[in-house]
Every structure is written in structure tokens, then in C-alpha cells.
């Protein structure tokens, strides 16, 4: 199970038939161009979103190289769904011993370390025969924590400089704070973009379109905004934990 904060810790206590209020989808559909070679970079629960994109890219005739990264061995989920429409999957985990690739998919690879290190090792042929060279990639889509997406964006100009096409598209799916969900109303989801050429800052609404040019996203600003509710979320988590101690003993989490 994944627990991002106080409210998500209630989920195991829900019962069949209990009402749950959900919101979404918000944002705009991810652009899918036919016939591209696409690199999908997923971090943790970001893989749940990318997993659904593989079908659309596959149906558009794309060649899909999927880097699926996790912090712990037990964090991986929906393995068959990720494999299903991906041409090559590179499974990486920050901690060992590392995942074991599906024996029915000899093209897949495994790596112990972070996602950028996995990309570098893949590019250098250290993980095995490279079926889809990084130099063929037309589009990169990164979804994960702001730290992970920033690392992927920076790696293209650092340890992987010169590896990708000069005209490749780099996209980050921004997980900025949300509130009204009404598109450009409350401004809670505002995100700063900094033009890498001019240094000029502009403001966009992330709930209107979550897919943003990775080189334009001001990740330090995003990180600060994501931390603004940290204290309130920690208090909520503590309060829920306190309440769980006093619920009826015959009610147990599923």
C-alpha cells in the first residue's frame, strides 16, 4: 500500500458500499503523436499514470521504452500491465537485490539505483543489448516526484548530454497543489515557468494542463509549493492515527 499523507491512511478502513467522493480527471489529454519512439520515465506511483499511457502510444504505432523506478522492492505494482504494451522495460529500484525480469521478455532489464543511473547504464550497454537506443527517442514523458522529474530533466543536459536528439520533446507531468479544480479560478495550482534561454518567468495553471515542458518548469518553486501544506498534513496524519486507537475493536482495516 502507498500512504502519501493522512487522508490516504483511511483507505484500508473503508467497507463495501461506503460512499467515497472522487474528483477528476483534470488537466488536458497527453499529446500522442503517431509513429514516435517514446521514453516513459515513471517514479513510484507515477507509474500508475504512465501505465495507462502505454496503450494509447502503442495504438498510435509508437515504439515504447519504459523506465519504471521504485524506492523499495515492495513498491512495484501492475507488472503485467506495464509490460503489456511496452517494447522494452527497464526496472530500477533504489534498494537491492533488484527486480527479476520476466523470462518471457528477454529484452527487459533490471538495475539497482535511481532512474538517471539506470538510463546512463542502459545507454552504455551495461544492462545488456540495447534494443531501443536513447538516440532514437523522439519524446520523453516523466511522471513522479518533483525531485525525480527534475533529475531526469537535468540529466539530458548533464550525464546524458548529447545522447538524445536535439529536437526531442521533454515533458513533465506536474503534480502541483490543487484546490478548486475549476480551471484557472483559485490559482492554487499556479506553476512558475522559467525560459531557459531568456530567464523570463511566466505563470501557468497546472490544473488546466499538467503536461509541461520539462526544461521550463521551475522545480525549486514547485518543491516549495508542495511543502506548503506539510504541517497541516502531518497534523491530520497524527489525528487520524489517534482516532484509530479509539475506534471499536471489532473494526479492522482490510
Structural class comes to alpha/beta
- Please give the share of residues in helix: 10-25%
- Can you count the helices? 6
Element order: H for helix, E for strand: EHEHEEHEHEEEEHH
Q: Describe the biggest sheet?
A: 7 strands, mixed
Low-pLDDT runs of 5+ residues are none
* First-to-last CA distance: 11 Å
Beta percentage is 15-25%
* Outline: globular
How big is the Rg? 20 Å
In total, the number of strands is 9
- Give the overall pLDDT as a whole number: 89
Strand order of the largest sheet: 4-3-2-1-5-6-9
Would you write up a description of this structure?
It is a single chain. By secondary structure, the chain is of the alpha/beta class. 24% of the residues lie in helices and 19% in strands. It contains 6 helices and 9 strands. It has a 7-stranded mixed sheet with strand order 4-3-2-1-5-6-9, with helices on both faces. Strand 2, helix 2 and strand 3 form a beta-alpha-beta unit. The longest helix is centred in the last third of the chain and has 15 residues. It is globular. The termini are close together. The model has no long low-confidence stretch (mean pLDDT 89).
